Amino acid sequence: MSTKIYVGNLPYSVTHSILESNFAEFGSVSSAKVMMDRETGRSKGFGFVEMASAEFAEAAIKGLHGMSVDGRSINVNLARPREEGRGPGGAGTDGFKASNRADVGYGNGGFGGGRY
Known about the structure:
With about 120 residues, the chain is of the alpha+beta class. The protein has two helices and six strands, in the order E-H-E-E-H-E-E-E. It has a four-stranded antiparallel sheet with strand order 2-3-1-6, with helices on one face. It has a two-stranded antiparallel sheet with strand order 4-5. Strand 2 (about 30-35) and strand 3 (about 45-50) form a beta hairpin. Keywords: RNA-binding. One of its GO terms (molecular function) is RNA binding. This is RNA-binding protein.
């Protein structure tokens, strides 16, 4: 079973192939993808790597987390599963809400909804 790894704080110069080659030192890489902005085509500064086994993933995390790449300290950890029910722009299944707190919003205690 493959294990997905999140890689954050990547320099914009890092490509899919560079990401894959860096992780290949720790074991078999199933896939490596740098997330790109649709409009500009530029890297978003993070990506995902899928390793062939949990042992390879753990070795890569231990070996690469905090490593300096082009002057940036990269974050490497297990990817969390995607949250269900999230729509574009942060809207959940119940639509857009500024907050789930009852005391936040207009008309709830002064300007900006703070407690006064």
